[in-house]
TrEMBL record:
InterPro entries: Alpha/beta_knot_MTases, RNA_MeTrfase_TrmJ/LasT, SpoU_MeTrfase, tRNA_m1G_MTases_N. Residues 6-155 form the tRNA/rRNA methyltransferase SpoU type domain. The lineage of its organism: Bacteria, Bacillati, Cyanobacteriota, Cyanophyceae, Nostocales. Pfam families: SpoU_methylase. This is tRNA (cytidine/uridine-2'-O-)-methyltransferase TrmJ. Belongs to the class IV-like SAM-binding methyltransferase superfamily. RNA methyltransferase TrmH family. The keyword S-adenosyl-L-methionine applies. It is found in: Cytoplasm. GO terms for cellular component: cytosol.
C-alpha cells in the first residue's frame, strides 16, 4: 500500500486552524484522505482555509462522519495516537516502529487516528485500534499540538514508504494459512484480514453473550472487553476466523435457548 491509502482521522477537532494545518501537512507528505468525526468547528471556514494554504483540495475532499466506527469503515488496520501512558497490556510504540505496519500490502485502506486537542481519545475509542503510538516529548512540557503530532506521523510514514516490503505481515511468524500460496481466489479472499467493522460485530455479539451467561457484569463489562479486544487485536483475525468464532457464539446461544425450552416442558 502507498502512503496515499492511509486515512488521517481526526476525532472531534475543535480548532479550525488545526484542521487547516493538518490538511497542509498531509499534502506535504502525499496523503489526501482526511476524515473528520463530529468536528466541533467549521472545517471549511476562513480560518481553516487560511492555514491549509495550497492544500485546500485536501480540505474540500474531507469526509465528515458522526462516529469513529463509521470513519473506519473498510479499514483492516488502525493505529491510534495517545498522549497518555495507559496501564494496560497493549504496548505504546513510537511512530518509527509502528507506522510502517500501516503501509504493508493488505489490499484495503488503513487508518491513523488522532483525538481531541484537549483530552485525546477515550478508552472506548482506543479500543477500535490494533496498535498505539505515543510521541515522547519533554517532561517539562509534554502537551503536543494536534497538527504537530499529525506532521510527525506523516513524516515517519513518508520515510517508511520505500522500506516496507509489500505483502509482508508483521506478526512475528507466518501462520499456516499464509505460509503457502492460496489454492484458489476463494481461499485467498477467506484468508484476508477481516475489516474492522466485521471484527467489531463479533465483539458486540461476544459481549452480549457473555453478559447473558453471567461471565460479564454490566458495571465491569467495558474494562473486561478491553482485554478481549487486546487479545484478538494481536492476532489480526482473518475473515474466515471471524466467521468461525461467530458461528460458535450462535451455537452457544442456540444451546442456551434449547436448554431453557427443555426446562419448561
Amino acid at each position: 500500500m502507498t502512503i496515499a491509502g492511509v486515512k488521517i482521522i481526526l476525532v472531534e477537532p475543535a480548532g479550525p486552524l488545526n484542521v487547516g494545518s493538518v490538511a497542509r501537512v498531509m499534502k506535504n507528505f502525499g496523503l489526501n484522505q482526511m476524515v473528520l468525526v463530529n468536528p466541533q468547528c467549521d472545517p471549511w471556514g476562513t480560518q481553516a482555509r487560511q492555514m491549509a494554504v495550497h492544500a485546500q483540495d485536501v480540505l474540500d475532499a474531507a469526509v465528515l462522519v458522526e462516529t469513529l466506527p463509521a470513519a473506519l469503515q473498510g479499514c483492516k488496520r488502525a493505529i491510534a495516537t495517545t498522549g497518555v501512558v495507559h496501564d494496560w497490556d497493549a504496548p505504546l510504540e513510537n511512530p518509527q516502529t509502528a507506522l510502517p505496519w500501516l503501509l504493508e500490502d493488505i489490499g484495503q485502506p488503513a487508518a491513523l487516528i488522532f483525538g481531541r486537542e484537549d483530552r485525546g481519545l477515550s478508552n472506548q475509542e482506543l479500543n477500535y485500534a490494533q496498535r498505539f503510538v505515543h510521541i515522547d516529548t519533554s517532561s517539562s512540557y509534554s502537551s503536543l499540538n494536534l497538527a504537530t503530532a499529525v506532521a510527525i506521523c506523516c513524516y515517519e510514514l513518508s520515510l517508511s514508504q520505500d522500506t516496507v516490503t509489500p505483502g509482508h505481515r508483521n506478526t512475528g511468524e507466518l501462520s499456516a494459512s499464509t505460509s503457502h500460496a492460496p489454492a484458489s481466489l476463494e481461499n485467498a479472499a477467506d484468508s484476508e484480514i477481516a475489516p474492522i467493522e466485521i471484527v467489531e460485530g463479533y465483539y458486540q455479539q461476544l459481549e452480549s453473550l457473555l453478559l447473558k451467561i453471567g461471565y460479564l457484569y454490566p458495571q465491569t463489562a467495558a474494562s473486561r472487553m478491553e482485554k478481549f479486544r487486546q487479545l484478538y487485536n494481536r492476532t489480526q483475525l482473518q475473515k474466515h476466523e471471524v466467521a468461525m468464532l461467530r458461528g460458535i457464539l450462535r451455537q452457544v446461544e442456540w444451546a442456551i435457548s434449547s436448554h431453557k425450552n427443555h426446562e419448561k416442558l
